[in-house]
Design a protein that fits this description.
It is built from nine helices and nine strands. The protein has 323 residues and is an alpha+beta fold. It has a single domain (2-104, 124-314), classed as Aminoglycoside 3'-phosphotransferase, Chain: A, domain 2. It starts with a strand and ends in a 9-residue tail after the last helix.
């Protein structure tokens, strides 16, 4: 059994050198904020049953943990240096996301015990009511800089715009970071030598439930855009994902206002991990000197401001002369 770098307490179980299961227990942030990530994930995976894009829930009686079968494959970031394979994987991810977004949410005559939970909204949609784990950030710290940026008038108007557009209506995952998107090659495609077909499994359903599919789409696009050795590679892969998602009837749409939310929350995660001695979540570039992290957070906050300006322009909302 091996500890994993995740925000909650996660262990990987091996048998004969192969990963066979993951065990999740509540982490410090979950305990502080009063949300039960373990219970929610168990409930969600039970309701999703054998949906192809979700991992299998293992029938282990353990009230303090959720046990899931290990998904075959690698995080999508492992394909960053192979554009053709990354494109194929993105098509598979699009299919998995459409499958989740189109899964039945329930009806008036359904058993209340089988009602889908409501997915938690991103904290940045309500920046005046922060979770307990986010309170008390010192002024001048990287975490303090993120919260200060969220309070800038232009950014705050964009966050208010995102909140006004939030429409929970489908099953959603809630956190499609690179470590939560697992892809595996299936077979050589007939299209040409070296081209593969992929399948995709989404993992870490602790924040899943009925939410806004726009959030999932923005999140996965932001994740894919950051893959590859140059911006063009990531953007091309993101375009491939979007084309396949919409071709298959995916209901989500992109929103600059939600990109503000996404990048702001990414900046917070980076700042929080850099200031903590806890095990670091997979996929966060949190190594290096504190000064380097401050620079990275500052760069992300500049991106936040750019998305905010774009979001306000697209809606005809006056930006004002402030930041």
């Amino acid at each position: 059994m091996y500890p994993q770098s995740r925000s909650n307490v996660v262990h990987r179980v091996e048998a004969r050198g192969q990963s066979v299961a993951y065990i999740k227990q509540r982490g410090m942030a979950s305990l502080l904020d009063g949300d039960d990530a373990v219970a929610n994930e168990r409930r969600v995976l039970t309701l999703l049953g054998r949906l192809g894009c979700a991992p299998r829930l293992l029938p282990v009686e353990d009230p303090g943990a959720v046990w899931v079968m290990a998904a075959d494959g690698v995080p999508i970031s492992a394909l960053s240096d192979n554009p053709s394979h990354l494109h194929a994987a993105c098509r598979a991810v699009a299919g998995a996301l459409v499958e989740l977004h189109q899964h039945r949410t329930g009806g008036p005559g359904d058993d209340p015990e089988r009602a889908a939970p409501t997915a938690p909204a991103p904290w940045a949609l309500s920046p005046d009511v922060l979770p307990a784990s986010m309170q008390g950030s010192p002024v001048g710290s990287a975490c303090g800089a993120v919260l200060a940026a969220a309070a800038e008038p232009r950014v705050r108007r964009a966050l208010d715009l995102a909140a006004s557009q939030w429409r929970p209506r489908t099953w959603t995952h809630g956190d499609l970071s690179a470590g939560n998107v697992i892809v595996a090659a299936e077979a050589e495609a007939e299209a040409g030598v070296g081209t593969k077909r992929y399948r995709a499994i989404l993992v870490d359903f602790e924040g899943a439930g009925i939410g806004d599919p726009d959030w999932d789409l923005v999140t996965v696009v932001a994740t894919v855009q950051n893959l590859g050795s140059d911006p063009a590679t990531g953007q091309s892969a993101a375009n491939e994902l979007l084309t396949e998602y919409w071709r298959a009837g995916g209901p989500g749409r992109l929103s600059d206002a939600l990109f503000v939310v996404r990048v702001l929350q990414t900046a917070w995660q980076l700042a929080a991990v850099s200031s903590s001695s806890a095990v670091r979540p997979e996929g966060h570039p949190s190594s290096g000197a504190p000064g380097a992290v401050d620079v990275q957070v500052g760069e992300l906050l500049d991106i936040v401001r750019g998305h905010a300006a774009s979001a306000l322009r697209s809606q005809g909302v006056p930006e004002g002369g402030d930041r």
